[in-house]
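Collaborator request, handled under Task 6.
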Amino acid sequence: MAVQAKVAPIGQQVTQATERTVSNTLPLSESSHVALNIPPEAVTSYTREGPDLIMQMQNGEVLRISNFYASVEQPSQLYLVGEEEQLVAVDLSQAAASDGILAASYASEGTLSGFTSLTSVAGAAGGTLGLGTATVIGGVAIAGGVAVADQVDQRSTNSGSGNNEGGSTTPPVDPVDPVEPVDPGDPEDDEPPAAASNLLLSQDSRFLTGTAEPGALVRVEVNGSVYTVNADADGNFVVTFAAALTGGQTINVVVVDAAGNVSPPASLDAPW
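Structure tokens returned to the collaborator:
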């Protein structure tokens, strides 16, 4: 895996740092601002392992930032790149005191990242990231994935446009998630997974946790906004909403297994 990165010591502007390419591991020698030229939706989970930060990508690959938490007083700060090429700060402070999966929230900095060329985001929903391949976002320490609302980056949409002249074929599109090609899975598997269970909204109404078939796609819809995340190996999942749900919204959840079978719906209502 290779990704464009900029690293600057805390107190210096990361946008002015020298651009470099890293593969699988990015070692830090001090608390730093770290900018990676990938969009938030390309990351499926953040995990702390000792002083290191582990980023799981949607295409299945992993990037380790060594010594990210080496300084307790001043941990490093991570930035990704938004649709307008601006820096997006990643806040991992909510559960960063101990090892485990971290909840992530995002805030646009309004400052251009300064990368000379864009890392391809065609893989933000499961393809290549201009770095190889990858899978998902972190959650609270009990589960396996924070999700961002389904947004197809316009840059990747444009790059994927074209026609079918010359006999090329287009892979079938999953009717549940139009961004992802259908995973045929087991062609004889026509049994839908069980509905999501143990649904629980966090006290601040920002996180939804629950359980589902391990590895299955969990699709959450709230007021027309769609969030997706994969359940971890134990079946746990976490979805992070763009804003706190405090208006009595109905949260609808379905589970989609590898064969494309869809579970019965499950739902709960946000508080007023």
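The cover message to the collaborator said: "Residues 154-159 form the longest helix (6 residues). Residues 118-184 have pLDDT under 50 and may be disordered. Please let us know whether this matches your experimental observations."
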